[in-house]
Amino acid sequence: MDKNLFAKTPPMGWNSYDYYDTTVNEEQVKANADYMAKNLKKYGWEYIVVDIEWYAHEAGSQRDKFQYIPFSKLEMDEYSRLMPDPERFPSSKDGVGFALLAEYIHGLGLKFGIHIMRGVPRIAAHLHTPIKGSEATANQIADAASICPWNPDMYGVVDSADGQAYYDSLLELYASWGVDFIKCDDICRYDQPSAKKEIEMIAKAIKKCGRPIVFSLSPGPAIIEEAWYYEKHANMWRITDDFWDEFRLLKDMFRRCEIWQEHVKEGCYPDCDMLPVGMLGKGFGKEHKTYFTESEQRIMMTLWCLFGSPLMIGGELTMLDDFTVALLTNEKVLAMLGSDCKPCQIVRDDKKAIWMAENKNTKEKYVALFNLGDDKQKIEVSLEELNVEKGEVSLEELWSGEKKLQKNKIMSEVDCHDCKVYLLK
Known about the structure:
The structure is a single chain. The chain is α/β, with parallel strands linked by helices. It contains twelve helices and 21 strands. An eight-stranded parallel sheet has the order 10-9-8-7-3-2-1-13. The longest helix has 17 residues. The protein starts with 11 loop residues before the first strand and ends with a strand.
């Protein structure tokens, strides 16, 4: 199975992390899936992703001290594979795992994803539990020197036939549940010695399992010199550490996108991380409406779409306001998303950025003017710089719907921390 067929366009969906942290439960996942199916699916949103520690008992119960409780009780099957906590995910009881939850989500016409940590559970190594398809036990495939610095749950997996058997058994299990998307953590930036090879091992297991499963690597920043390796084995990889609702992080994303703009292609997507919109932070004990202004959210959505990043909503869907729904369902902005549109940065300095993209099939051109400064300013770019031969163009601004004609250049007054994105006609 060709991995590039798994995500012919950048995946679009919802991830539980930004609002729930480690605490999301089955009822909440279903509520967000119901909302997406009713309100967002027709615009291309389709993935429902359960993020970190769905297997941990009492996750989030000591959030004032720990994000991840050290060596807490983890739910695990007889083959060293983590299973959903049945208290938070009641349908997972009796070894069913996520099969019934995935069935529910598939029944809505959506796709189901999970977060995993790289490696084998430390408790499995300590207890010498079996590995399916192998004579080895978990301690024999565990690389005890390869540990995540921020999460205590796993050891790395050694590159061996037995190590591969463990990952094969994981993907066999996930395929039986109906998993469509895997976000693998503690792997993208090669912090630990076994991480790079584990990307390849998981990719092999996905190919072997017979189910098309999108493979996402986290956290960033990804290593630009390793772009070829990510492209060979994964569908998406984070180009940043966790992205939150701070303008300094949004402004820096223009630098990151500049580095990665040549590597956006069908089935392979540099990932700008989740969209921290709507209500965030409940699981962290800091529930709040996004700190991004409405104009900053337009900048974010415009850049993510023009660049061709996957789109994962971080806020609680059932609490979205009208502005956020409109932001996420602007069909003309979403039309820029995908490998048909080749992104290109024209200008970037401390106060502004200009990007363009051309759809290789329709030949439509898009130009975005971003005001990254703290004052309103005039931003312009010549048609010559955009390789537009005619001297006059008809423009449609995709957020406001404003239409106008301009000669020789595209120019606009742009408010501080705001943008204009035009379709050239």
